[in-house]
Amino acid sequence: MGRQEERERKIQFLEKITDGIMWWIGSIPSLIVHSLVFLTAFLLPVFGVVTVDKMLLVLTTVLSLEAIYLAIFIQMSVNRSQVHIDDIREDIEEIQDDIEEISEDIEEISEDIDDIQEDIEDIAEDEDEEDHSERAKNVMLKSNVSSNKNDIKALREVIERLQTELEGLKNENDSLRDNPEVR
Fold it and tell me: Can you tell me the distance from the alpha carbon of 52 to that of 71, in angstroms, rounded to the nearest whole number?
């Protein structure tokens, strides 16, 4: 295992630890433990175990250290969240590009189908006197064109749905970026 892999493994281990600490700090058990510690700290002077000044000094020091570490953990979490937001932003941009390309392709196909249908109609008018088998072929071609139009219509609906979902993702991304406490 190379140095880089070992370093990455250690970083991932530390990230798991900090995630666990952040989860625990924001949990009901943490609230209960902190409440019990504060209650105990304030009861110690009442029962004469320590003086009020000494208890306040120790409690203030411990709380200051805890606040420093919490600030560091929170910033680490924000930094990791920003990386994920950037990845999501790139994915959204790629999806937008793909949707634009698909829309252009569908427009081109639709134009081609319209041209083909006009050609079929022209052929049908010119060949009114042909036999029934030729007419059957023309009817089948028209049917295929109609079927293709239905397929294109369905594809357009899918693209519209994807664009709506994309807008939702953009809005969610913007709200995450604008409101870091949500993370």
Answer: 28
How many Å apart are CA 5 and CA 72, to the nearest integer? 25
Q: Which two tokens stand for residue 78?
A: 């924000």
In 3D space, the residue among 72, 80, 64 whose CA is nearest the CA of residue 21 turns out to be: 72
pLDDT digits (tens, 9 = 90+) for 49-60: 999 999 999 999
Residue with tokens 């306040």: 56
To the question of pTM greater than 0.70 for the whole model, the response is no
DSSP state of 179: -
d(CA 155, CA 162): 10
What are the structure tokens assigned to 148, written together?
């293709």
CA dist 143 to 136, 147, 150, Å? 10, 6, 11
Cβ atoms 146, 117 nearer than 8 A:
no
pLDDT one-digit tens code per residue, 101-110: 888 888 888 8
Q: Give Dmax over CA atoms of the chain in angstroms.
A: 116
* 55 closest CA partner among 34, 39, 69: 39
Q: Which residue do the tokens 């219509």 mark?
A: 153
